């Protein structure tokens, strides 16, 4: 061994509580001619650390603490498929040993460089880097942003469920042009015939108190329905439900109490006025009720 080289045994506690004997070899830089400098100027040193058990070698221009070395030597083997871009090693130990300076950087032998690519390297970095008092999540990252408040939905359709009064089949009579209609469904179906077949419109009004019968009778006379019905049906629905909700104060208060919730007619049979079997229908009755709700709120009487 060169006289300028000294070997010092150092005991480091392994991560699994076993001791690993390391050899620290200190080699001062020599001037040309191979003789030590006599100028008295400080000489830079190079520190070489070897783990005899794993045959790992770490070289540094400054001393490394035993704790720091132990963490390096116990890093697991690189896993297949790990990104080759992750080649960083921690630059400072978590708790330096007394009397040993912590290096700002270190370089390793080619054998040790394999360990730097381990997927656990980022874990080691989090241990050796100072903990930040603030959150590590960027303020504008998706996880830090609050998701918008989801709008509540109110479903109505079935007789024994809440808000059945929102349907046209509920037992709430409606007065239109001085005549009483048993339900808003009766009035709505009669609108199909009012202008050109008033006799049929009167038949729909008086055929039965049951809204299902008024519906069936209007379908029976489908050939007599006004030809532009598909262009005016939503407008006629607006008229029918406005009369109903303004003539029944309890229904009006119930509608206003829904806040800004989405109102949905949960009918699996009607994909136009309701949402249909697949839940993707147009929900035109729900939309009409929400329009009416907005109109009532704007009204001074509300």
Automatic annotation (TrEMBL):
<dbReference type="InterPro" id="IPR037238">
    <property type="entry name" value="YbiA-like_sf"/>
</dbReference>
<feature type="region of interest" description="Disordered">
    <location>
        <begin position="25"/>
        <end position="52"/>
    </location>
</feature>
<feature type="region of interest" description="Disordered">
    <location>
        <begin position="81"/>
        <end position="151"/>
    </location>
</feature>
<dbReference type="InterPro" id="IPR012816">
    <property type="entry name" value="NADAR"/>
</dbReference>
<dbReference type="Pfam" id="PF08719">
    <property type="entry name" value="NADAR"/>
</dbReference>
<protein>
    <recommendedName>
        <fullName>NADAR domain-containing protein</fullName>
    </recommendedName>
</protein>
<feature type="compositionally biased region" description="Polar residues">
    <location>
        <begin position="84"/>
        <end position="97"/>
    </location>
</feature>
<feature type="domain" description="NADAR">
    <location>
        <begin position="156"/>
        <end position="297"/>
    </location>
</feature>
<feature type="compositionally biased region" description="Polar residues">
    <location>
        <begin position="25"/>
        <end position="47"/>
    </location>
</feature>
<feature type="compositionally biased region" description="Low complexity">
    <location>
        <begin position="126"/>
        <end position="147"/>
    </location>
</feature>
């Amino acid at each position: 061994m060169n006289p300028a080289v000294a070997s010092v045994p150092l005991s480091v506690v392994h991560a699994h509580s076993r001791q690993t004997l390391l050899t620290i070899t200190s080699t001062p830089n020599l001037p040309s001619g191979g003789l030590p400098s006599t100028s008295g100027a400080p000489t830079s040193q190079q520190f070489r650390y070897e783990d005899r058990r794993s045959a790992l070698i770490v070289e540094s221009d400054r001393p490394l603490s035993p704790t720091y070395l132990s963490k390096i030597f116990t890093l697991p083997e690189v896993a297949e498929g790990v990104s080759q871009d992750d080649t960083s090693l921690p630059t400072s130990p978590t708790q330096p040993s007394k009397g040993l300076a912590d290096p700002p950087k270190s370089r390793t032998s080619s054998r040790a460089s394999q360990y730097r690519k381990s997927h656990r390297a980022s874990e080691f970095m989090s241990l050796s880097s100072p903990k930040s008092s603030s959150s590590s999540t960027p303020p504008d990252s998706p996880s830090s942003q609050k998701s918008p408040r989801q709008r509540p939905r109110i479903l109505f359709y079935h007789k024994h469920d809440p808000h059945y009064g929102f349907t046209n089949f509920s037992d709430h009579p409606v007065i239109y042009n001085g005549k009483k209609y048993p339900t808003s469904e009766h009035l709505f179906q009669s609108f199909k015939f009012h202008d050109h077949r008033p006799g049929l419109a009167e038949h729909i009004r008086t055929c039965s108190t049951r809204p299902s019968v008024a519906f069936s009778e209007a379908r029976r006379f489908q050939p007599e329905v006004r030809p532009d019905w598909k262009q005016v049906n939503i407008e006629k629905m607006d008229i029918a439900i406005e009369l109903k909700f303004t003539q029944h104060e309890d229904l009006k208060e119930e509608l206003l109490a829904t806040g800004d919730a989405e109102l949905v007619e949960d009918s699996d049979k009607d994909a136009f006025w309701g949402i249909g079997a697949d839940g993707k229908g147009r929900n035109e009755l729900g939309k009409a009720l929400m329009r009416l709700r907005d109109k009532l709120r704007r009204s001074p009487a509300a």
